């Protein structure tokens, strides 16, 4: 048996130690040059056939390397993307199968790039991004290099000296020079664009034996360590593995982080890169999975909402992390993805998954600190309810009390989302962008990303005087964040609470979410307490963006049937149509909607009169760029304190096929909210006559006892919050 076949058989059999696996993944001979794909375990075999189909199709088309012209989504842009994928997978196929046609195709493609690359100047479709050569922005050039250098590494040692020299000197060395010297400003940023650039440069350095490239990639252009890949691992992730730009960009950045780390581990194992900063990169991979619901990432900041765990960046990431940890929970993620990579780590994932070694991923309630030192706010995830086959609870509440997230951040401190029954119930808009769809402004961010998506009113947060947090100033917002006051994952009463005193001058905002278990009510049940304090009079708006169709409301609005007015003129308000308004003198009301056969009631109470506004996004949008989504806004004019207490209750079901409806109306008959000595007392009366109080002291000391007399009833509890059963109405 050949050395390559022996190596492959050993990997698949599982007897190769981890150190040898690291060497094997760098080996330029085939993993299995003799056996058919059917001999591999199913996931790996399917990946092999998928790669064959794509690369064989590219070979049939011939080598096509066009002169760059188009922005994202255009022909030349997409062709160069297809090319780097073909180089990457073609190299893998040669290494695994030993078929020279794959080697020859990759070689010929790179020789064409050797003719083109030296002739390139700034891309003609450059926009406001840092300009690239092959692509309209330098980020895409870095992505090209990260993929192409891996495919080149799989064939380089088999090329004659002349071809190798031409490709080295006319493609990879100038690409490295462009990224790390000509684009130094991007290269030395602490940002995902720089992560891709440093990864491409460093991996090229390892392949070409150029230590200068490697050092620049690891330590920055001046090799001081103030920038570069190592510094990025220290500044872009919190100690809990949360990436500052949010889940969407965490997913995107993890590929260069983990692929380059894998190369570092193979070439310089003495660096112990996967142990660096308490294993931050492996921790970040697990955190990325936690930041999802039914596989889709929570759409914080400039997020494209249809991105999920089924993404190329995480196929690689999960395989590398499994190769390092052998964590069986990662196998269940790979099973959900239905994909892996054509590397030894991918073979291990496939083999162990086929052997039944997977365990459910431990989705759980947790608090993820933000900032490199963990002191720049946090993201709280509260989960409860029955789990699905993947072990994920049915309900998830996400409280975004984190930092701004740099240039991709939105102005939405103390905002939240709620998922239930497989759906997003309380929504976050994400980005206003049609990625790589040329018809929509060339696939770039749309103007409405600034005028709507980033604005505070587009989110489920408190808005003061119809202006966005920090006045919409991103530089200011980058220096300020909420303070996490309390968090509890205790069964029966999960809690998160934060305060923000700098989103508006002279206004302090505090928000507390609780997920209590109340006998007689279905899950989820969310209590939301919002307080604002100021010495000056203000208008306070509390929007709730929800998914579903209105069933009923218990107030009498004036509907706009003849015309459709707009709520305001700027700060996002210009994009809200007003469909109805209701003045609520007692500050109380309820709205019920239905989504996917389940009913949801939003019941609220203010500390004075409220105006309830029923509206929809999409006004002042002549190009039809925005999604039309419903909202309810609670508006209060207050001097001193403004408070809002609300309950979101899931209840009942509707089966259209069976024409059957159950509990379509709320099971709560009354919500009462009072504040006494800085403490919140929310009393619920159920239609069954049962009564409960959710008492919140806002004191995190669990040993502190609290006692309040309310309407003749004595309430006693210890610690931050408690659920207290009260005598029923009939008692």
TrEMBL record:
Domain Heparinase II/III-like C-terminal, residue spans: 370-630
InterPro entries: Alg17C_C, Alginate_lyase_dom, Chondroitin_lyas, Hepar_II_III_C
Pfam families (UniProt xref): Alg17C_C (PF22686), Alginate_lyase (PF05426), Hepar_II_III_C (PF07940)
Keyword Lyase: yes
Subcellular location: Periplasm
Annotated Exo-oligoalginate lyase C-terminal domain residues: 686-724
Domain Alginate lyase positions: 79-288
Signal peptide: 1-22
Keyword 4Fe-4S: no
GO terms, molecular function: lyase activity
Keywords assigned by UniProt, alphabetized: Lyase, Periplasm, Signal
Entry-linked SUPFAM superfamilies: Chondroitin AC/alginate lyase
Main subcellular location of this protein, as a coarse class: periplasm
Name the UniProt record assigns to this protein: Alginate lyase family protein
Protein species of origin: Erythrobacter rubeus
């Amino acid at each position: 048996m050949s050395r390559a076949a022996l190596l492959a058989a050993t990997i698949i059999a599982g007897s190769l130690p981890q150190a040898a696996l690291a060497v094997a993944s760098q080996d330029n001979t085939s993993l299995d040059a003799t056996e058919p794909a059917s001999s591999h375990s199913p996931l790996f075999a399917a990946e092999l056939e998928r790669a064959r189909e794509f690369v064989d199709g590219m070979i049939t088309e011939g080598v096509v390397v066009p002169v760059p012209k188009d922005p994202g989504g255009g022909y030349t842009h997409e062709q160069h993307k297809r090319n780097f994928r073909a180089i990457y997978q073609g190299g893998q196929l040669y290494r695994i199968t030993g078929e020279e046609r794959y080697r020859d195709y990759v070689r010929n493609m790179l020789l064409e790039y050797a003719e083109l690359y030296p002739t390139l100047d700034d891309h003609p479709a450059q926009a406001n991004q840092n300009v690239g050569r092959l692509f309209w922005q330098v980020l895409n050039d870095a992505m090209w290099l990260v993929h192409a250098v891996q495919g080149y590494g799989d064939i380089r040692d088999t090329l004659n000296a002349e071809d190798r020299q031409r490709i080295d000197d006319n493609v990879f060395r100038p690409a490295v020079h462009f990224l790390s010297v000509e684009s130094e400003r991007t290269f030395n940023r602490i940002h995902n664009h720089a992560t891709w650039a440093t990864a491409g440069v460093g991996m090229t350095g390892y392949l070409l034996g150029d230590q200068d490239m490697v050092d620049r990639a690891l330590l920055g252009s001046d090799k001081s360590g103030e920038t570069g890949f190592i510094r990025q691992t220290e500044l872009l992730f919190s100690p809990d593995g949360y990436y500052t730009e949010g889940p969407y960009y965490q997913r995107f950045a993890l590929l260069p982080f983990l692929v380059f780390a894998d190369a570092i581990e193979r070439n310089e194992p003495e660096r112990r890169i996967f142990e660096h900063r308490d294993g931050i990169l492996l921790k970040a991979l697990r955190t990325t999975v936690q930041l999802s619901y039914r596989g889709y990432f929570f759409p914080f900041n400039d997020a494209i909402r249809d991105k999920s765990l089924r993404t190329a960046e995480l196929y690689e990431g999960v395989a590398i992390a499994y190769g390092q940890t052998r964590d069986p929970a990662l196998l269940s993620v790979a099973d959900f993805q239905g994909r892996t990579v054509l590397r030894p780590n991918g073979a291990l994932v496939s083999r162990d998954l086929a052997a039944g070694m997977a365990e459910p991923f431990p989705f759980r309630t947790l608090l993820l600190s933000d900032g490199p030192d963990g002191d720049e706010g946090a993201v709280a995830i509260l989960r409860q309810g029955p789990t699905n086959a993947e072990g994920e609870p049915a309900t998830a509440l996400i409280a975004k009390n984190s930092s701004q997230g740099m240039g991709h951040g939105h102005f939405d401190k103390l905002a939240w989302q709620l998922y239930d029954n497989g759906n997003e119930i309380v929504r976050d808009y994400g980005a206003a962008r049609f990625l790589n769809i040329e018809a929509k402004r060339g696939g770039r961010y749309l103007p409405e990303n600034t005028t709507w998506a980033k604005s505070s009113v587009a989110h489920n947060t408190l808005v003061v005087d119809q202006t966005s947090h920090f006045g919409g100033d991103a530089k200011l917002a980058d220096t300020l964040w909420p303070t996490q006051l309390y968090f509890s994952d205790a069964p029966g009463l999960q809690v998160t609470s934060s305060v923000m005193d700098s989103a508006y001058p002279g206004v302090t905002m505090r928000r507390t979410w609780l997920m209590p278990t109340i006998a007689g009510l279905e899950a989820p049940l969310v209590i939301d307490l919002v307080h604002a304090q100021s010495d000056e009079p203000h208008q306070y708006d509390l929007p709730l963006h929800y998914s579903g169709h209105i069933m009923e409301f218990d107030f009498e609005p004036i509907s706009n049937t003849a015309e459709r007015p707009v709520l305001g003129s700027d700060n996002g308000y210009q994009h809200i149509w007003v469909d109805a308004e209701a003045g609520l003198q007692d500050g109380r009301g309820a709205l019920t909607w239905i989504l996917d056969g389940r009913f949801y009631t939003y019941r609220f109470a203010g500390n004075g009169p409220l105006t309830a506004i029923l509206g929809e996004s999409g006004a002042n949008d002549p190009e039809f760029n925005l999604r039309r989504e419903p909202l309810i806004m609670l508006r209060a004019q207050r001097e001193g304190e403004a408070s809002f207490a609300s309950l979101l209750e899931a209840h009942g079901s509707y089966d259209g096929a069976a024409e059957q409806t159950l509990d379509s109306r709320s099971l709560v008959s009354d919500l009462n909210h009072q504040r006494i000595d800085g403490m919140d007392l929310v009393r619920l009366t159920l239609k069954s006559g049962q009564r409960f109080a959710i008492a919140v002291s806002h004191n995190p000391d669990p040993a502190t006892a609290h006692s309040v007399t309310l309407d003749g009833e004595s309430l006693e509890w210890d610690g931050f919050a408690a659920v207290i059963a009260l005598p029923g109405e009939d008692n």
